User: What shape does this take?
Amino acid sequence: MENLQEIPAPLLAWYDRHARILPWREQPTPYRVWVSEIMLQQTRVEAVKPYFERFIGELPTIRDLAEAPEDRLLKLWEGLGYYNRVRNMQKAARQLVSGYGGEMPQDFDAILALPGIGSYTAGAIASIAFGMRRPAVDGNVLRVLSRLEKSYDDILKQSVRRRFEEELLQVIPEERAGDFNQSLIELGAIVCVPNGAPKCPECPLKEVCRAHADGVELELPKKTPPKKRKMEDRTVLVLVSDNKAGLHKRPEKGLLAGLYELPNLPGRLNREEVLEFVKKQGLSPLRIQKLPAAKHIFSHIEWHMTGYAVKVEEPPAFWENGGTEPEGREIQKAPAQEEIFFVEKEQMEKNYSIPAAFGAYTQYFKERY
Assistant: This one.
């Protein structure tokens, strides 16, 4: 669209004055840009900052990421959710070690071919870290462009995204490709905001914005409504024995694949049903207390949880993880995949990544029952 030709100069001037100071912008190396962009997917900037600092502090290079034990990797990611993202990052890091000497290639197609990297992330790495003229179109940018062009096309369609990418490719300035992409993202994050009225008086592009000219900013962007989520009842168990906590490892495929979790069962069980289940695990319950209900929303499923804290007698020995506990202490043979195992509470907090879905109940491990 012809009005896009007018945006680089005022947008970059605005960005030079208003760009937020963010840790990944201070040293925009390919690795730091990559890590930050994966973390920022569906997560607020302020929430990402401490995770980014911790992750980079412990795994400062692509080679470190490639060699990290999975349990430690997932623990570093704990709280960000979508654990397959960091697993794909490690797959990509291993490919970079084997094929590129542990460095990100200065080739857009090679970056795009890596596991877990789509056109947006590849464009961000290519433009911000290497200065390539490649667009980086995320949700913020789609919203800005929809309003600038007064486009009623569905922004969730790949054809619409590709059209915007092609249009931007014509206007990205040669000398400031990375800053241009970041300025569009920044504008969408703090001025042309979602879920409410955009701050049009503050916008450097208000004079060329067609939606603003016609007063239809709140009608855009258009996107297909999400499918209705499936509702599931779950009963979550906080199993404690002195300084030990009961955990379970999920299957390697499906929701929360391969992650550690609090033992849980489908349905809304009562006290008697919970006690019967605990006894069938070979445990001796001493006390049971019902906990407040909780809810967790996944992208396609919504859990409505009932919780119980159950104090049990001294449980079986520690679970064996490949012959050793995460810290290396020799322990006895592992139970079957579906069984519950116990670890010291301190070790659970330090070494085991528990999905945020159980966040309402992990706090109860700090209490005694």
